[in-house]
UniProtKB/TrEMBL annotation:
<dbReference type="InterPro" id="IPR051654">
    <property type="entry name" value="Meroterpenoid_MTases"/>
</dbReference>
<comment type="similarity">
    <text>Belongs to the class I-like SAM-binding methyltransferase superfamily.</text>
</comment>
<comment type="pathway">
    <text>Secondary metabolite biosynthesis.</text>
</comment>
<dbReference type="InterPro" id="IPR041698">
    <property type="entry name" value="Methyltransf_25"/>
</dbReference>
<protein>
    <recommendedName>
        <fullName>Methyltransferase domain-containing protein</fullName>
    </recommendedName>
</protein>
<feature type="domain" description="Methyltransferase">
    <location>
        <begin position="101"/>
        <end position="199"/>
    </location>
</feature>
<keyword id="KW-0808">Transferase</keyword>
<dbReference type="InterPro" id="IPR029063">
    <property type="entry name" value="SAM-dependent_MTases_sf"/>
</dbReference>
<dbReference type="Pfam" id="PF13649">
    <property type="entry name" value="Methyltransf_25"/>
</dbReference>
<dbReference type="GO" id="GO:0016740">
    <property type="term" value="F:transferase activity"/>
</dbReference>
<keyword id="KW-0949">S-adenosyl-L-methionine</keyword>
Length: 286
C-alpha cells in the first residue's frame, strides 16, 4: 500500500464532511462569547476545521470532536469551577491561587467556555504541541486580548523552555484524549512534567479527563505505539510518577460500556473512559 492510499484510508475512517447537528453549545459560545452572527457560524467552522486538518490529521479534528463541550458536564469540572471561584472569592486570604491547565487544548474551546461561565481568564492556561492550533483559536474566538495564557510546546521534551511559563502555577489539570496517544514511558515523562507545573504548596491537585481506555491494559501497536489503561494500570503508572517526583496520587476510572471505540487500531476490549488522578499529602515522619 502506498503512502497516498494509506492516507486516504485514514481519512475515510477519521474524517466526516458535514457539521454535526448536536453542537448547540459550541454555536452558543461563538454567538455569545465571540459575537459571531448566527448565519456565519457554519461557514466559519468549516473553514476552521480545514485549517486544523492541514496542521494535524487527528480524529478529534476530522470527526469534529473538538466542537463537543460535553466535558464541562464531567463532575470533575464542577469541582474545578468551585475551586477556581472559591479561590477568587478568598482573595488575599488564600495561601496560593487555584489555576487550571488544559493540556492538548486544541483551539482552547473549553477555556473559553469557562470564561463565558464567569471564571477569571487569568487563572486559565492552555498548552498544545501545535502553535497553529492556538493562533487559529484566537482568530476563531476573536479574543487575542482575553487574558488567557497559552504555551505551545512538547510535553515529552523536559528541556522545552516554551512550557517554562507554566512551572509552579497550576493546581488543576484537564487532559482530554491525550494520554492514550503515548507509550508507558512517555506517559511517565509527561506526568513528571505535569508535577513541575504544580504550585509548590498544593497538596490536593486534580488531573482529569476523558480518553480511550481498556479492560486489558497493553501497549497498542500501530503507526505509533501507545499504552491503554484500566484503573489498576493507571494507578501503577502514577505510583511510578509519584516515586520519581516525591508526590502521591490516587486514581479512579469510570468505563463507558455502552459505546465501542470505532477508530482504526482499537479492539473489542477498548472503551471510552473518564479518569481522575488525585494528589494527596506525603506523610511527614517524626
Amino acid at each position: 500500500m502506498n503512502d497516498e492510499s494509506a492516507l486516504e484510508r485514514w481519512k475515510r475512517f477519521t474524517y466526516v464532511d458535514n457539521l454535526p447537528e448536536d453542537i448547540g453549545p459550541f454555536r452558543k459560545l461563538l454567538e455569545e462569547y465571540s459575537n459571531i452572527p448566527p448565519e456565519e457560524v457554519d461557514g466559519l467552522l468549516l473553514r476552521t476545521r480545514e485549517r486544523l486538518w492541514e496542521v494535524a490529521m487527528y480524529p478529534c479534528i476530522g470527526r469534529w470532536s473538538f466542537l463537543n463541550l460535553q466535558s464541562v458536564r464531567d463532575p470533575h469540572f464542577y469541582t474545578v469551577v468551585e475551586r477556581l471561584r472559591r479561590s477568587a472569592d478568598s482573595g488575599a486570604a488564600s495561601s496560593y491561587p487555584e489555576a487550571l491547565l488544559d493540556i492538548g487544548c486544541c483551539v482552547g474551546q473549553l477555556l473559553r467556555k469557562l470564561v463565558q461561565d464567569g471564571i477569571d481568564p487569568t487563572r486559565l492556561f492552555g498548552t498544545d504541541l501545535h502553535p497553529e492550533f492556538i493562533s487559529i483559536g484566537a482568530e476563531l474566538f476573536r479574543d487575542e486580548a482575553s487574558g488567557l495564557t497559552f504555551a505551545a510546546g512538547d510535553m515529552l521534551n523536559p528541556d522545552d523552555e516554551a512550557l517554562g511559563i507554566l512551572n509552579g502555577k497550576i493546581t488543576l489539570v484537564h487532559a482530554g484524549n491525550f494520554f492514550h496517544l503515548f507509550t508507558w514511558e512517555e506517559q511517565v515523562v509527561i506526568g513528571m512534567r505535569i508535577v513541575r507545573f504544580m504550585h509548590p504548596e498544593t497538596v490536593d491537585a486534580i488531573i482529569f479527563g476523558r480518553q480511550i481506555g481498556t479492560h486489558s491494559p497493553r501497549e497498542r501497536q500501530g503507526r505509533r505505539k501507545s499504552f491503554l489503561h484500566n484503573e489498576e494500570s493507571l494507578q501503577r503508572l502514577w505510583n511510578e510518577v509519584g516515586a520519581k517526583t516525591g508526590t502521591r496520587w490516587r486514581v479512579s476510572m469510570d468505563i463507558n460500556e455502552e459505546k465501542m471505540v470505532d477508530i482504526p487500531g482499537f479492539g473489542e476490549e477498548d472503551r471510552y473512559v473518564r479518569f481522575g488522578i488525585y494528589q494527596f499529602p506525603i506523610e511527614k515522619k517524626g
